[in-house]
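W.,

You were right to be curious about this one. When I first looked at the sequence I had no strong expectations either way, so I just let the prediction run and decided to look at it fresh. Below is the sequence, 444 residues in total, followed by the output.
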Amino acid sequence: MKIARGLLPLVVLASAAGAQPGVPTRAPVVRAVDMDAPITPVSALRITKAIDLAEEQGNALVLIRLDTPGGLVESVQTVVKRILASEVPVVSWVGPSGARAASGGFFVLLASDVAAMAPGTRTGAAATIYGVGENREGDVLLKKMNEDNAALLRSLAERRGFDPEAAEAAVFSATAYEDAAALDKGLVDLIAPTTEALLAELDGLEVRRFDDSTVVLDTTGAVIVETEFSMRHEFMELLGTPIVASLLLLAGLAGLWIEFTTPGVVLPGVVGALCLVLFALSAQVLPISAIGLLLIGLSIVMFVLEIKVVSYGMLTLGGAAALVVGIWMLVDGPIPALRVPLVTVVPLVVAIVASCALAMRFTLRAQRERVGTGAEGLVSETGTVTQALAPDGKVFVHGEIWDASSPRGSIAAGARVRVVRVDELRLVVEPVEGAPAGVQGEVE
């Protein structure tokens, strides 16, 4: 008891010192992350990792800077679920000026505890698209997807205190809202031109969370910590780009084709196999179309046949058409950012067709040329008789002495002869017209 009474004054003094003004306190930490790409299984990890780190390190809140055209429905729903389950308040800000939170980005915005926009930004336009040219009026599957997404937006809007009718209009009517209209329609909480202005607006704001709990945000002197990602994550995001995926597929097929047509080169085969493995990784992230793959395969077959069969360019034209459509349909994403643009397809096809035409030209030229090696290469070559042909003897051709015979009769040694054909290892020759008569002699 005496020891406890002795420590009591020290405790009181320590408490008083902690309460004195001017004593530095720990500044709140804001975990920031950028969502400036289409929302895919890989890019969605940006937000989920930021929330995980904020929970582990006890950060004050998570700030998501949105500038996205949307993305895959499953990936968007994954992000929404993680935001709703977050133990740390989540603030989404569409910015800077000129940015957008379209389609799937609209879901992320409404799911956040605080929704904010910068001047000159827009959001909404969340109508469902599930394939190029497949969204027809009266489509049952399309209606089901729109109803499901609209129900999710209504639920989010009602729990956050937003206008549910304005939220579902973004799905059924593909309505988009600029910053002022979104604030007027009750779809966002505030407008802030910069993150600094946003944090100033958030300081002391009481937020009602999705589970009905309330929290007062403290952003006084907040320190913004950017979320960093590994090289592996950055590499996977690169593989998740439609243009990169199409280039990997074409490079892989070209490498294997070169290896099969010219065995022993090795390097093209190794590079081609590696590119196809990387394309398989891209296929795990992107919605790859089986029809697109089949069309690309058909085009390769046509290009190969053009070299083997003379079709006067018809197979090349057919292969080019199949390749254009195949690459264009290869990635069947719901938004243009998740498809291969035609401006990229056309130069690729032109380059490939030009390469095939060049290869075909060299092949046809090689087919027209006389064989220069082996027994066939001796035909039409000229030589000198070293042992008189009567009708059998020997001739000197291509630096070697061959057994030869003359169907036209005897030919003297030293005469010039031309090879007519090759019978096994015996040459059949004839005298060269206009050559001088041969004389017996030695061949140097």
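Here's what jumped out at me. The two ends are 125 Å apart (CA to CA). And, maybe more interesting for your project: Residues 232-367 form one domain.

Coffee later to discuss?

I.
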